[in-house]
Amino acid sequence: MRVGLFIPCYVNQFYPQVGIATLQLLQKLGVEVVYPLNQTCCGQPMANSGFEHLTKGCNELFVDNFNEFEYIVCPSGSCTLHIKDHLHDERNEAAAIAVRGKVYELAEFLTDVLNVESLNAYFPHKVGFHQSCHGQRGLKLSQMTELVAEPFSKPEKLLRMVKGLEFVPLSRQDECCGFGGTFCVTEEAVSAKMGKDRVEDHLQHGAEFIAGGDMSCLMHMEGILKRQQSKVQVKHLAEILNA
């Protein structure tokens, strides 16, 4: 199995350890991983701001970089969903459609493609998991609590395989953290209040770490934790599964 590793901009720029953990984790599971060096932004910030017509170059470059791979794996639900839903290429739309069909968020890839049932990982801490909106409502990585349906969570399934980890239940397990990409810029006060509420839920339940599948959301909450001088840290799912 040959996989193209798709790393979001903010991971590359601010949290490179998450990209490294994703690479190492996939390699431990026997996957041949290739990182296309020419990859850039997938175009999500422009598209989410109403400027999808400016993403043409990003789209074409993404297809050029990733068309050759059997699977494409990304440690971000929002970037994965953007490619799945919005990737187009006027030069070769068939190639773009093919790429859209083989891009996977990390937890989704581990559970649905690799069918991982056990992990050689150890993380002896109390961990609360933040399920980001794009992953939950777009990629269906976990069940939405407002639905009368059987609950499930692909990230939680993986975290429960980690030795020593105590999974911390939350009062509002699928509540938005308030990041929302450009929302945190245009609606700063609302975004900050939502983030404080999301962090408080974890703190009230004794979490030592807030884990998640999107570093953008974790970055938002990390800023709040630091301003509160809290000892609670954030960790991407890949870092814990690779621990």
TrEMBL record:
Pfam families: CCG (PF02754)
Signal peptide segment: none
Domain Cysteine-rich, residue spans: 3-84, 127-221
Name this protein carries in UniProt: (Fe-S)-binding protein
